[in-house]
Amino acid sequence: MEDEVGYNLNGLPAFGMFLIGFFLWPISEGIWGQTIGKRILKLKVVTNEFKPIGIGKAFGRFFLGFIDYIFLIGLIIAANNKQNKRIGDLAANTIVVWTKKPTHNNV
What we know:
The protein has helices at about 10-30, 35-40, 55-70, 75-80, 85-90; strands at about 45, 95-100.
Protein backbone atom coordinates (compact mmCIF):
# COMPACT_ATOMS: atom_id res chain seq x y z
CA MET A 1 0.00 0.00 0.00
CA GLU A 2 1.38 3.36 -1.08
CA ASP A 3 1.32 6.23 1.38
CA GLU A 4 0.64 9.48 -0.50
CA VAL A 5 0.20 12.91 0.91
CA GLY A 6 -1.05 15.58 -1.42
CA TYR A 7 -3.93 17.48 -2.85
CA ASN A 8 -5.87 16.64 -5.97
CA LEU A 9 -8.31 18.97 -7.69
CA ASN A 10 -10.31 17.66 -10.66
CA GLY A 11 -13.32 18.50 -12.75
CA LEU A 12 -15.58 21.45 -12.03
CA PRO A 13 -13.74 22.63 -8.88
CA ALA A 14 -10.46 22.69 -10.84
CA PHE A 15 -12.11 24.62 -13.66
CA GLY A 16 -13.59 27.07 -11.15
CA MET A 17 -10.19 27.70 -9.57
CA PHE A 18 -8.68 28.20 -13.02
CA LEU A 19 -11.33 30.80 -13.89
CA ILE A 20 -10.79 32.68 -10.64
CA GLY A 21 -7.05 32.76 -11.13
CA PHE A 22 -7.29 33.62 -14.81
CA PHE A 23 -9.79 36.48 -14.46
CA LEU A 24 -8.73 37.95 -11.11
CA TRP A 25 -5.93 40.03 -12.64
CA PRO A 26 -7.81 41.81 -15.48
CA ILE A 27 -11.01 42.27 -13.49
CA SER A 28 -9.23 43.84 -10.51
CA GLU A 29 -7.26 46.09 -12.89
CA GLY A 30 -10.43 47.01 -14.76
CA ILE A 31 -12.41 47.88 -11.63
CA TRP A 32 -9.76 49.40 -9.35
CA GLY A 33 -6.87 50.02 -11.74
CA GLN A 34 -4.69 47.82 -9.55
CA THR A 35 -3.85 44.21 -8.91
CA ILE A 36 -2.81 43.19 -5.41
CA GLY A 37 0.85 43.56 -6.38
CA LYS A 38 0.34 47.00 -7.90
CA ARG A 39 -1.50 48.11 -4.76
CA ILE A 40 1.41 46.98 -2.58
CA LEU A 41 3.90 48.79 -4.85
CA LYS A 42 1.62 51.87 -4.98
CA LEU A 43 1.13 51.64 -8.76
CA LYS A 44 -2.03 52.08 -10.80
CA VAL A 45 -3.01 51.57 -14.44
CA VAL A 46 -4.82 54.49 -16.07
CA THR A 47 -5.55 55.64 -19.62
CA ASN A 48 -3.22 58.08 -21.34
CA GLU A 49 -5.69 60.76 -20.17
CA PHE A 50 -5.27 59.54 -16.54
CA LYS A 51 -8.82 58.10 -16.38
CA PRO A 52 -9.85 54.61 -15.16
CA ILE A 53 -9.15 51.93 -17.76
CA GLY A 54 -12.25 49.73 -17.52
CA ILE A 55 -12.62 46.00 -18.06
CA GLY A 56 -12.06 46.02 -21.85
CA LYS A 57 -8.67 47.72 -21.75
CA ALA A 58 -7.68 45.58 -18.76
CA PHE A 59 -8.38 42.39 -20.72
CA GLY A 60 -6.46 43.76 -23.71
CA ARG A 61 -3.42 44.44 -21.51
CA PHE A 62 -3.82 41.02 -19.88
CA PHE A 63 -3.91 38.99 -23.09
CA LEU A 64 -1.07 40.92 -24.70
CA GLY A 65 0.89 40.35 -21.51
CA PHE A 66 1.40 36.74 -22.58
CA ILE A 67 3.35 37.95 -25.62
CA ASP A 68 5.22 40.49 -23.50
CA TYR A 69 6.34 38.00 -20.90
CA ILE A 70 6.85 34.83 -22.93
CA PHE A 71 8.99 36.34 -25.65
CA LEU A 72 10.45 39.20 -23.54
CA ILE A 73 9.39 41.54 -26.33
CA GLY A 74 7.59 43.73 -23.80
CA LEU A 75 10.83 44.31 -21.90
CA ILE A 76 12.67 45.30 -25.07
CA ILE A 77 9.87 47.62 -26.21
CA ALA A 78 9.44 49.18 -22.75
CA ALA A 79 13.18 49.85 -22.55
CA ASN A 80 13.10 51.63 -25.91
CA ASN A 81 10.22 54.09 -25.55
CA LYS A 82 9.96 57.30 -23.54
CA GLN A 83 7.10 56.20 -21.28
CA ASN A 84 8.42 52.65 -20.70
CA LYS A 85 5.20 51.15 -22.06
CA ARG A 86 4.99 47.47 -22.93
CA ILE A 87 2.95 46.12 -25.87
CA GLY A 88 -0.25 45.80 -23.83
CA ASP A 89 -0.02 49.44 -22.73
CA LEU A 90 0.68 50.66 -26.25
CA ALA A 91 -2.29 48.73 -27.68
CA ALA A 92 -4.72 49.70 -24.89
CA ASN A 93 -3.52 53.32 -24.64
CA THR A 94 -2.74 52.89 -20.95
CA ILE A 95 0.10 53.80 -18.66
CA VAL A 96 1.23 52.57 -15.24
CA VAL A 97 1.69 55.44 -12.78
CA TRP A 98 2.63 55.87 -9.13
CA THR A 99 -0.37 56.51 -6.93
CA LYS A 100 -0.39 59.76 -5.03
CA LYS A 101 1.13 59.26 -1.63
CA PRO A 102 -0.74 60.89 1.24
CA THR A 103 0.99 63.80 2.90
CA HIS A 104 0.97 64.14 6.67
CA ASN A 105 1.56 67.39 8.46
CA ASN A 106 3.78 66.85 11.41
CA VAL A 107 2.92 69.71 13.74
